[in-house]
Amino acid sequence: MTGYKPPLKDILFAIREVAGLEQILALPALEGFDVGTAEQVIEEAGNFARDVLAPLNIPGDRSGCSIHDGVVQIPDGFADAYRQFRENGWQTLAASPEYGGMGLPDLVAVAAWEMWQAANMSFSLCPMLTSGGIAAIEAHGNESLRQSYLPKLVSGEWSSTMVLSEPQAGSDLAAVMTKAIPEGDRYRIIGTKIFITWGDHPMAENIIHLVLARLPDAPAGVRGISMFLVPKFLQNDDGSLGERNDVYAASVEHKLGIHSSPTCVLNFGESGGAVGYLVGEENKGLASMFTMMNHARLEVGIQGLAVSERAYQLASAYAVERVQGEAPGEEGRVTIIHHPDVRRMLLVMKSQIEAMRAVAYSSGALLDLLHYSENADQRASAGARLALLTPIVKGWLTETAQALTSLGVQIHGGMGFVEETGAAQYMRDARILTIYEGTTGIQAIDFVGRKILGDEGKAMRSLIDDMRVTVSDLAQSDGLQDLQEPLDQAIRDLEKSIDWLIATAPGDPDAAGSAGVNLLMLSGTVLGGWQMARAAIVVSSSASHYDKSFRQAKLHNARFYCAHILPRAGAFARAATAGSAMVMAIPDAHF
Predict the structure, then answer these.
(1) Residue 317, exposed/middle/buried by CB under 10 A (0-12, 13-18, 19+)?
(2) Structural domain of residue 457, as residue ranges?
(3) Which of 109, 174, 210, 386 is the most exposed place for a label (fewest CB within 10 A)?
(4) What is the mean pLDDT of each run of 10 residues along the chain (591 residues)?
(5) Residues 163 and 280 in one domain
């Protein structure tokens, strides 16, 4: 069993060379920060992850959460860790200075979140959701709500939740039945919500629930949903905490993973109705909630990266210590790192983790361009690219995490199947990632429907054009021509698949749904190859200041990705373009 070691060299390389930290810090709105400051913050975030959060991960998984007499119990040490998190100002990292935030780039926050999630995913879910709540209230709340709630949320004194699902309404939000009854300038919220992450806990003084509910005269379906801010404790006129609101945890779910994150059933209004305040416009709550949800989708993708890194660290440490069997050219019994298949599995993990990190960090840079650029065209371009990448970050990274954490168990052999080594926890924790904040199927529908067919492939073709520039750069780079053909072929597979979708979907209503997941996985795989090629170009340059060992490792990982991972693009493309008949023609009785 090994502790978490923040992969700072890889993180700083990705943030500088792939995501373009210097270009982001050159934006006038961020002129108060420099690269040295950003890197120091990232290093300190890594120290906090390693020293405070990581030691609580396994004990928290073993003890889990519970509820007694309506009070949610969390693992020992979590409350103190949260106090340190708050006092160190980590919740304020990328928040607006107007409400007490540091105002650092989102790109820096992405790097910090990777390490915190890797160290302790269950714990980090709580402040992660608060960040999303801050974004939603800042974007859609009125001035009174922003001034009343954002300073405490930004400081971390209060936490936030996302409250969507109901027993009869999981991903189908059109079926939401929770009521919102007007009462002057506020509302009474009545209903039951399920699967509420960190829905109740003792770490924060107050919990601010962002709740989807329906007004009495609301139209049916998603067009009739509004969003409400419902605090656990109401505020007095002087801003101090007042009486307890009518919202209580009824139970805590017993889950496959993330045991130390309390996932609650919340009852609103058992004693007359919980007081809530409208966020945004009536009957337009879904748009408000999507600000928080899209933030969470990017963060969940980062969770996929983070838990994969943690699983890789454990597996690689085990592989260099575990003695078993013999290997050609070696005397006597050897450690399993000498066996070709173990090396293959470790390289499958390591190369994809690097690709995942590059894709996720590039998305963080787009957030900064969208928020801080003074150029309207640059903001529009960044917004379109970010919208295209969000379902890929959520879907591809989390699906890949399923495979990589499973490989982590496999590398341990039988020892991976017992809980004592810790490998099983990462696989269990990762399993939720493709489900919450929208399943992979939902991400695929969004990707092919809104993001590709919605603009007839314009944003995707712009991305493909950028990839082709890198193909040309490979041809001009000494020693990298072997990466050119695999990447070029994968890009052609992607382009042909997009052309097929745009041509086929108008005449086949099932085409997008049946092809969606394969198209999403195809796109993520090719994006990963593109970013690995870009990294290879950087380290192969004569101007590269990285040490020889680091450069060789990056080049080897890029070559391995192109040889072992990128060929999957062709299979995804063939499956995506096979047509819907093979999926839809089978009678229900045959299942």
Answers:
(1) middle
(2) 440-582
(3) 174
(4) 91 97 96 94 98 98 96 97 98 97 97 98 98 96 97 98 92 89 97 97 98 95 95 94 97 98 97 96 91 93 98 98 91 95 98 98 97 96 97 98 98 96 97 96 97 96 98 93 97 98 97 97 98 96 86 97 98 97 92 93
(5) yes
**Residue 564: count of CB within 10 angstroms of its CB:** 14
Task: Enumerate residues 6+ apart whose C-beta is below 8 A from 466.
Answer: none
Q: Which of 138, 309, 399, 437 is catalytic?
A: 437
φ, ψ for residue 197 (rounded to 5)?
Answer: -65, 130
183 given a catalytic annotation: no
The reported pTM is 0.97
CA 137 to chain centre: 20
Indicate whether 104 and 179 sit together in one domain: no
The secondary structure of the chain in percent helix, strand, coil, rounded to multiples of 5, reads 60, 10, 25
366 burial via Cβ count (<10 Å: 0-12, 13-18, 19+): buried
What is the rounded distance in angstroms from the CA atom of residue 392 to the CA atom of residue 298? 9
CA–CA separation, 325 vs 317, rounded Å? 18
Give dist(CA 458, CA 461) in Å, integer: 5
215 domain residue, yes or no: yes
Tokens 């995942």 map to which residue? 356
* Conformational region of residue 187, where left means phi above 0, alpha means psi within -120 to 50, and beta covers everything else: beta
Residue 184 dihedral angles phi and psi, to the nearest 5°: 70, -125
Q: Which of 100, 132, 155 is the last residue of a domain?
A: 155
Domain count, the chain: 3
Q: What is the DSSP string of 127-159?
A: HHHHHHHHHHHHHHS-HHHHHHHHHHHHHTSEE
